[in-house]
Design brief:
two-stranded antiparallel sheet; single chain; Aminopeptidase; 5-stranded mixed beta sheet
Amino acid sequence: MPESLTFCGRTFGLSELELMRQTARDFSALGVTEIARTVCELLEWTRPSGGLKNHECRQLLERLQAEGFLKLPELRHQGGRGPRRADVSGACAEPAPVTGAASECEPLELVLVDGKSESHRWREQMERYHYLGCRVPFGANLRYWVRHEERELAGLLWTSPAWKMQARDEWIGWSDEQRRRNLQRIVNNGRFLILPWVQVKGLASKILALSARQMPRDWESRYGHRPLLLETLVDAERFRGTCYRVVLQTEKRAVDFASSAATITHRASRRSA
């Protein structure tokens, strides 16, 4: 095992890694989530808002187990825990088409996904209609419905940023140390789905512009720090990234989509929303 390990922007020394191993051994009667929370408390691994980074900690513990450094208890199969992928095997009737001018869909409302039933329905729509499906997001995240007059038009997912991204890191020009200190000021647009029965030209850029204005406030409210840069990956074999370019040209605010432009230009083979 190396003398140190960097994960999610934090470098852990050998004594901290040993503490993780000892905690996993001494509290083996607990579940993995409880162990992760305990480690976070002992190491004061928290978000700027004060919340524990137990999700990231759990992933680190699972990585250390895969490398043979420690052993975690067997996963508990609890009846309340749902599947990691939404079930889309059943039939689904599509609503009537939405067409017309983008202005006819205003005002748009960006609504955080809240509650078990809303979460299930959001995941199901992403799994059914997004070409990448729906995966459990990594780290901090916000999920949204986009609505007009109570009718859902689209869904969005914003998540913690990729640890390394060549196009972004070259565009910013930061060192590894600067990246470790400031990475959490970036948020990644992991999913963007306009529902297939919504056929409205220009709607995508309006949704992204609204999200670029509102999401940073919501992110700061939940996680305690305000994003300064937004990023995404675009599969150039499927999409041209036009809606992101439009937002780049029209939204000149503190939050910038410039990283998206670099990604569109340099990462044509990568896949995302």
